[in-house]
Write a structure and sequence with these properties.
The chain is mainly α. It has 22 helices and 4 strands. A hairpin with a 5-residue loop joins β3 and β4. α13 packs parallel to α16. The longest helix is centred in the middle third of the chain and has 27 residues.
Length: about 575
């Protein structure tokens, strides 16, 4: 969204977008018209695709928040000025009320009454009667937390997957709907809950749908900004200021090291209009390299030198000078420490959400629908795709010790980093099942747990251990081959989250009835730990880890793995720069 967009357009866009979200989205819940019961997957997909469309339609006008919680997130991240927050929220609230009026205009009153759940009204968000108030609050809080993490990562200029925002939000909303549809709605959006509540006069535990999402937005956004950092995209602001097209502030310019300089270059390239080439001049000794259409340094060590960076675009060149102090090699690199902390935090959070949300799709007792493995497969696949969108740019989103081992075999990360990745994933898996217990009544977990405990991985009794071992081995090997292809710089990287999510869905459908389709030691450890069930647990560590390592070694030695693209920009002599000007 451009900061120069007139306020009336912003308000109108948010009003219309929220009205369409509630009116059209809730229309997907009217089962009586089709005389069939819509599955949670169908309703969630309808809402997800609708949100994706609305982001495409209104995103460039107002940012397409559609949600007071997202607006609070935007204010904390400085995506919008604080004085606009109440204008956004009021337009969303009235949009939600108008949206439900649209539903009533296009739907006979008899149909709406027939689709009313427990006399609460059609599409009114009320917690499942099996849930306690604490269960419902934790559910809305955690669901909104994932949504806000997705928003933060989508707006973060460092995220390479941020180009297709409509697809990202369609995936995320669909995943959260499948996971929590039978629990609290889920709403994750006060304005979406407010409209149906007003027209139906139903306020049962309505406060949850305001307090939990807004609290999650404030807490999670602050956490993301503090722990992971946040880089704003200034492209729209640059377009608004034609008088200073290449003017950018560089914070702490006298303290930039190589990594920070690269981040600085990334930001500038992201915000320049059609740059032709860039000159990075080292004044001691005099030399230069030029990067044509690329944002990577191709030569030179910046430590201890004064660097002039000249960015040429359609306007006159503007030169930036950075004075870099001599780097002290005897002290640990501060940026490396920060990066390590961020990686550990991202893997912990990602694995926790994987276990909590993935296993939540298996709570059959909360749903009136017939549960099949298809629900679990789609739920796990979309949850993992969303997690890749959220933390992929921070840690690579391994969320799996077996994948981390395979990535180390590929030499993408040094082996010592396994001491960061794997403990974080293990702790995340344990914490994730604890989150699930906070969202789910004990009786439900017991009813769905069977003899092994809820969501504990165990081989099918009809399978021998050898059969189950090979199922986990080959499934993880196939998953790792996909990861190898994604990490290969010569492969297509445009739809990474979707590639991973669909692969997980397919593999769960294939081997879910055989070995429970873990393919992830951390995912197996969390439920086993909380249920104290360790029978054949070793299988879910050795088989996935071995499969991943063998697949990575095979790809690296047979197919050839390239960490860098083969075609890299060559340094261009300075005289060529003058000829091109």
């Amino acid at each position: 969204m451009s900061r120069k967009t007139p306020i009336f357009r912003v308000v109108l866009a948010e009003f219309l977008a929220t009205a369409l979200l509630v009116g059209v989205g809730c229309a997907s819940c009217t089962n009586a018209i089709s005389h069939t019961i819509h599955s949670p997957v169908a309703t969630s997909l309808a809402f997800g695709l609708l949100v994706g469309s609305l982001v495409q339609i209104f995103g460039h006008i107002s940012g397409a928040h559609l949600n007071p919680a997202v607006t609070v997130c935007a204010v904390i991240l400085e995506e919008i000025p604080p004085e606009l927050m109440f204008a956004y929220i009021l337009s969303q609230i009235f949009g939600g009320i108008a949206g439900y009026a649209i539903l009533m205009l296009i739907t006979p009153a008899a149909i709406i009454r027939e689709d009313s759940h427990q006399d609460f009204g059609c599409c009114t968000t009320v917690p499942n009667l099996e849930l306690s108030t604490l269960n419902a609050f934790c559910t809305e809080f955690l669901a909104t937390s994932m949504l806000i993490l997705l928003v933060c990562s989508s707006w973060d200029a460092r995220n390479p997957n941020r180009q297709n925002l409509p697809m990202q939000f369609a995936l995320g909303i669909t995943a959260l709907g499948i996971v929590f549809g039978s629990r609290t709605g889920p709403s994750m959006n006060p304005a979406r809950s407010f409209g149906p509540a007003v027209w139906n006069g139903v306020w049962t535990k309505h406060w949850i749908y305001w307090v939990a999402p807004l609290f999650a937005a404030m807490l999670v956004t602050t956490m993301y900004k503090s722990i992971f950092g946040f880089t704003r995209n200034l492209r729209e602001e640059k377009k608004d200021d034609a008088n200073q097209p290449n003017d950018m502030k560089v914070e702490n310019a006298n303290q930039l090291d190589d990594t920070e300089l690269q981040m600085f270059l990334d930001r500038l390239f992201a915000n320049l209009e059609n740059p032709h080439y860039v000159r990075v001049a080292y004044h001691s000794p005099p030399s230069a390299v030029v990067l044509a259409g690329n944002n990577k340094l191709v030569a030179g060590d910046t430590a201890g030198r004064t660097i002039s960076i000249t960015f040429y675009s359609r306007q006159e060149p503007v030169e930036k000078t950075i004075k870099q102090p001599e780097k002290k090699t005897e002290t640990p690199d501060k940026m490396d420490r920060i990066k390590t902390i961020r990686i550990a935090a991202a893997e912990f959070i990602g694995t926790a959400f994987l276990v909590a949300f993935g296993c939540a799709t298996c709570t059959q007792a909360l749903s009136k629908e017939t549960w099949t493995i298809f629900h679990a497969a789609v739920g796990f696949g979309l949850v993992i795709a969303t997690i890749v969108l959220v933390i992929g740019h921070i840690s690579g989103a391994h969320i799996n010790p077996a994948i981390s081992v395979g990535v180390a075999v590929l030499q993408v990360i040094p082996p010592k980093m396994l001491l960061v990745y794997i403990p974080a994933q293990i702790c995340g898996g344990i914490a994730g099942f604890g989150m699930l217990k906070a969202m789910t009544p004990y009786e439900i977990l017991e009813a769905d747990g069977g003899s092994t405990g809820f969501c504990v991985n165990a081989p099918n009794p009809a399978m021998t251990l050898a059969h189950a071992f090979m199922a986990e081995f080959f499934a993880t090997a196939l998953l790792m081959l996909l990861v190898c292809a994604i990490l290969d710089k010569n492969a297509d990287h445009q739809t990474v989250p979707l590639q991973i999510g669909t692969a997980i869905t397919g593999l769960v459908l294939v081997i879910g009835h055989r070995s429970s389709a873990s393919m992830n030691p951390a995912r197996s450890l969390g439920p086993a730990f909380w249920n104290s069930y360790w029978d054949d647990h070793w299988l879910y560590w050795i088989a996935p880890t071995a499969g991943s390592a063998v697949a990575a070694l095979l790809y690296r030695t047979v197919f050839g793995f390239r960490k860098e693209a083969e075609h890299r920009p060559e340094p261009v002599p300075l005289q060529d720069i003058e000829e091109r000007k």
